[in-house]
Amino acid sequence: MKSSRRHFMQASLAGSAALLADSALAQDTTLIPGRGPGEPIDSSVTYADRSPYVKDAKMRGSANGLVGGGFTPLQHSRGMVTPSGLHFEVHHSGVPDIDPSEHKLLIHGLVDDEKIFTMENLLRFPSVSHFHFLECAGNGMGEWMAPRGKTVQQTHGLTSCSEWTGVSLKVLLNELGVRGDAKWILAEGDDGARMTRSIPLWKAMDDAFLAYAQNGEFLRPEQGFPLRLIVPGFEGNMNVKWLRRLEVGDKPWWTHHENTEYADPRPNDEIRAFSFYMEARSVITSPSGGMKLNGPGFYEISGLGWSGHGTVKKVEVSTDDGNTWQDATLQGPVLPKCHTRFTHPWRWDGKETTILSRCTDDTGYVQPTYDEMYKLQGPVGIMHNNAIQKWHIAQDGEITNVR
Ligand SMILES: Nc1nc2c(c(=O)[nH]1)N[C@H]1C(S)=C(S)[C@@H](COP(=O)(O)O)O[C@H]1N2
Ligand SMILES: [Mo]
51, exposed or middle or buried, with CB in 10 Å at 0-12, 13-18, 19+? Predict the structure, then answer.
């Protein structure tokens, strides 16, 4: 357990051996007496609630009406999984009400055998299950020009992480027989938006899958019930929800979302279409914007790192505005294309400072600063903002987004 020893050593290096000063501990040392029986068991409950004392971890809406969705309260997150009821949502035309017994998936185009699958058919195929993050390419788009979000929910809340279960796309395509000239696949959703995206065939044959379950149960309506595409590590938009049609072709379709919103500006007036990957990013979720430190002393800095290219190799934390950096502990599990929790012990001396984190993935790619992002996209970029996030800590402990 090398990492936990390092963790402990860093903690003791940061000051005296005791992590919490006596004044920070409960003063009343009377033992709590044993309890009598609890509430009678309610056998009519069909789906359990959270503790009534847990009220703060709430979704936060970004829009009303049909276009928009909700942000994950990352400041309250622990570990690497997002509870399904707190998974962020982005809808382009509301959430359709689909009866799974009537839902069908058509696979056609450059295949030997065109087929329509019912949900019952799909559930009979061999299943796969993987933990993956899903991040909207527009996560943090409001932050390009100036720090705007108060909390990490507002600045980074369009990323979440679930265990997804379903059928490997390769297995289905092999069932139909893909023709030699095939290179791309169009995925189409069964919502009013008819969301369509072109997926390269190599990705479809690599690790893409059709998910019908999330965190141990069938998908939430908001996550695409009864069937969605999961394209691990690729921008959220390509993970088409309420999937109804896959068309195999020999070139991309250049759909609305490929032509406009999801293309990125590059130097010399060039545009990068088909960015695909969500590149390595990290953010400190605690302490973070909108929180207040309760006096000097020990705090655990905790956050999430992720990369659409593979696994998180390391996350470094700076508690002095980027002058010095230390390796954080990766809490594990460390899985490919998945949120990875990092922690770092810190003793705050009560002085004004800025804390930030920087992620490196297993390709060697290092999360950029805003200055580096500007060189690439200009200050008016919209999508694929993976720049380093800074939180300022004032002398009174107040934490603000300085980006
Ligand atoms: N059919 C359909 N699929 C869709 C969308 C949509 O509006 N309709 N939104 C996309 C976008 S922009 C994102 S970021 C992800 C969000 O997935 P989630 O709502 O499950 O978090 O779904 C994608 N798939
Ligand atoms: Mo998105």
Answer: exposed
